[in-house]
Amino acid sequence: MAHQQTAKKEIVGGTEETTSGVQRLVALERARRLLYPVVAVNNARTKYLFDNRHGTGQSTLDGIIRSTGILLAGKNIVACGYGWVGKGVATRAKGMGARVIVTEVDPIKAIEAKMDGFEVMPMLDAAALGDIFITCTGQTCIIRKEHFLKMKDGVILANAGHFDVEIDTKSLYSISQGKPARINANTERFDVVNGKKKKKLLSKGRVVNLVAAEGHPPEVMALSFANQLLSILYIARNYDRMDVKVHSVPEQIDQDVGSYALDSMGIKIDQMTVEQERYQHSS
Amino acid sequence: MAHQQTAKKEIVGGTEETTSGVQRLVALERARRLLYPVVAVNNARTKYLFDNRHGTGQSTLDGIIRSTGILLAGKNIVACGYGWVGKGVATRAKGMGARVIVTEVDPIKAIEAKMDGFEVMPMLDAAALGDIFITCTGQTCIIRKEHFLKMKDGVILANAGHFDVEIDTKSLYSISQGKPARINANTERFDVVNGKKKKKLLSKGRVVNLVAAEGHPPEVMALSFANQLLSILYIARNYDRMDVKVHSVPEQIDQDVGSYALDSMGIKIDQMTVEQERYQHSS
Amino acid sequence: MAHQQTAKKEIVGGTEETTSGVQRLVALERARRLLYPVVAVNNARTKYLFDNRHGTGQSTLDGIIRSTGILLAGKNIVACGYGWVGKGVATRAKGMGARVIVTEVDPIKAIEAKMDGFEVMPMLDAAALGDIFITCTGQTCIIRKEHFLKMKDGVILANAGHFDVEIDTKSLYSISQGKPARINANTERFDVVNGKKKKKLLSKGRVVNLVAAEGHPPEVMALSFANQLLSILYIARNYDRMDVKVHSVPEQIDQDVGSYALDSMGIKIDQMTVEQERYQHSS
Amino acid sequence: MAHQQTAKKEIVGGTEETTSGVQRLVALERARRLLYPVVAVNNARTKYLFDNRHGTGQSTLDGIIRSTGILLAGKNIVACGYGWVGKGVATRAKGMGARVIVTEVDPIKAIEAKMDGFEVMPMLDAAALGDIFITCTGQTCIIRKEHFLKMKDGVILANAGHFDVEIDTKSLYSISQGKPARINANTERFDVVNGKKKKKLLSKGRVVNLVAAEGHPPEVMALSFANQLLSILYIARNYDRMDVKVHSVPEQIDQDVGSYALDSMGIKIDQMTVEQERYQHSS
Fold first, then answer.
1. Could you give the C-alpha distances from D18 to A27, B139, D52, D110, in angstroms and in order?
2. Rounded CA gap, B239 and D44, in Å?
3. Is C102 on the interface with B (CB under 8 A)?
4. Closest-CA residue in chain B for A275?
5. Are A72 and A93 in contact (CB under 8 A)?
6. Of B115, B107, B125, B57, nearest in space to B86 by CA
7. Distance between CA A114 and CA B256 in Å, rounded?
8. CA C207 – CA C163 distance, rounded (Å)
9. What is the pLDDT of residues A124-164, one digit of tens each?
10. In this prediction, does ipTM exceed 0.90?
11. What gap in Å lies between CA C170 and CA A122, rounded to an integer?
12. With an 8 Å Cβ cutoff, is A121 touching chain B?
């Protein structure tokens, strides 16, 4: 979402879909430079529990398989980061028969990954073990020169996070002989100047599920777009009562999107009895 | 935690470990009857992600196996509720080879369960399919007369939630012939007055992991108690600056408990580089 | 493998890769029409444990995702058959977050599937529940008219077995209005003449992993081809001492292929101690 | 099964339940010392697929939890051996949230474990990593002095194989200070004379699921005993036509046991159509 002064007069509010976008808007709000109320669709549970986790989980592996044809069973897959994207990638990689290693900087996420059955170690140790590396952090330079130099021959590098900064491609170029060879539309081979030389970089370090596969499956986009639509309707009705800040998706919208999704899958659930409503309020 | 006026003078603050306890304290706060600041240890991530989920998940199945000797592989296990306890129970039951059915009243949790690979349906439908029923809700009368009457012969009923109210034992008595037979220390057999008669109730509907097994494994209690201890130290140092309300565990305490746990497991993790710290703040 | 009289003089032996091919050769042997010794590569453990299971498991889901873009998490996937291909498909589908239903005619495979945590039911019941159907049997007319008519709107039909006979496409044509619509290169939409009309047939009922994806990943083909090569060398050295029948791959070849594969993955394993060798022989 | 000359006249045949027992009988047969026909019940698929795998898998973890109260999630569990028992133990340990390492001497089983998503390494490497060690081999001295000396402080040693020979308790005694301390009925603590001293040995190295838990769940024993019973009836009717050797359980008995088990679980399966029967025979 561009957020420029010139647009101000016409715009009464906005919605934002991505983690990175919400971070930027929160920064604008803190700097008192936000111009109108914004609903952070990314923070709806019916968005991040499904889109960031299940959507990215499946489509990232899809992008890797389409680019390389590799068998995931038996491979060492390193998921860098254990936020919702990392959880999705790690869970699906395990489901495909891989041994999964997680790297983290947050101790709570790290121990969560460990108790979920994954190995946890520093990136420098993981670098020597991985067959496939997938960055899932939203951060910069997660995989960099020191890691490239420790990696085995023939490893695959893919990014499932945000921009093309998670894998430090600049330093990968700097330690490679000649220009990378183009193996196919989305795969380049770098010949690193040490003994274990071949590294395969997917989609130039851009998000592999968008570039090398077809992005999220429609089912998860439907959940996200439903949040978008209902949030826009909400803003249209309430913008003159809304503070100029980053708002959460109203809980009722989140619940409604969940209900519509269940309906579309033909799933019925229970409702609280009168007695249970009363019990909840009494306690 | 008793919260009585008489104790007031001696007490400068408190901590609370359980979901139910926190709910009651929040109710007291709303009624302006809270007497001193309380730290809700239950809400620390290093508490609920591990204690409520992994601790209860393992120990609930342990209690059921010790009481009944049943093979979990191939059984239909109904997890009533998909909060942290329900997630733990469902995940472990699946890990032991069971087919897991989840019931819920919250549409978002319901669709989360469905996308996690579980079946989701109303309790009345699940009643006819389950071999083992485990309540995980914190609510009352989750399994009641109408459900008992639809169940197969020989089903097992266990509670992993809070008090002995989730399984409506009163109505189970009312539809049974004679007194229940005591099969072993923690198992009673009810002969329900219809064709499919035997129901096995574990630990009289009290939480099965505490009564029929040995509660949480020490590793998860260590995490919870570390939060307790550090929260008490925090209160001791800060109580005169704390509002009389229910406080979250300070984020730094939560992080520290995670770090100590990783240390004790011999696990090292990464730290953000200077460049990454900068990137995070810039964006 | 063509097996014709004319070829006889030049040929001293053969190898066969597929389940179907081996069945045909065994039939020839029984009919005393086999002309030279054949080694059934398909029966090597380093073939069927990996190729039929892990290779087909991954590439079948790959073919379905490429053709339809569908999210597997939360879907009801019906695996028809629980041989090695069915085991692979069911395991991977579960790993991707699906609820998996298995159909079988063999009671032992059926109870194996049930104890592995899958639902087991007759095809007619599964027809009403599935979102995606995958035939894995090597048999004919597994999904037929009576099943099509019970299916939900919009289901996906794919074959991972052998020829294009597992899904009875002829009867699918017979109950559809007009010609099927071509959705993309490998997907046709049939409008069945009842209320729940759309069925999506992938790759015209031919094996979906070969037609809509790229077949097995190279790692599993390497195992199969290694068995082929070593079996051919074995025949070249031994054909004059071999009976004209279908032979198993010699155990030593199977073991060697396993060892080479471990080597290529950088994995070391233990060797029996002298004491253990002695213990094994003594008992 | 005792197999003594004196018993000969009264006995017309026998059945054998265990892997070890069958191995001994085969040895007797080879030495031409078998006195009557024996049916190897252990080799029935409805025995080993369920008893050795699912029965031992669950009850072994049960024995370990009862003896130690340990949380399995997040632990490094080493399964020594990847036969049916090892497969069961590894699968259940993973299902409980553990990171599982497999050791093997057979290259095919080793690569099978690797492709099933487990780590595979030599015992000496695994010794340094494991928190819990479970022997599943039927062999002798799988864990021995050199391994004990590399292990971390506080590790748990359990045997799920056959006799009390898999863990070399003699050498464990020899490197420990004083007599082991008895922690509880089934757990002894050895203080090994190096820095990382405490090792906890369960049930004196005897099979932990029989000693520290309650053996197999009744459901799997029912399958095994059904094979026993039907095999005895078979011998009673056919012993005068049976060669004096170790016989497999007749396929029809195996199938029947599977069918009875499905019936008892209320599960229906398909039957081949006439067309399918014909297709099978034609091909």
1. 68, 48, 9, 23
2. 69
3. no
4. B140
5. yes
6. B57
7. 16
8. 7
9. 999 999 999 999 999 999 999 999 999 999 999 999 998 89
10. yes
11. 57
12. yes
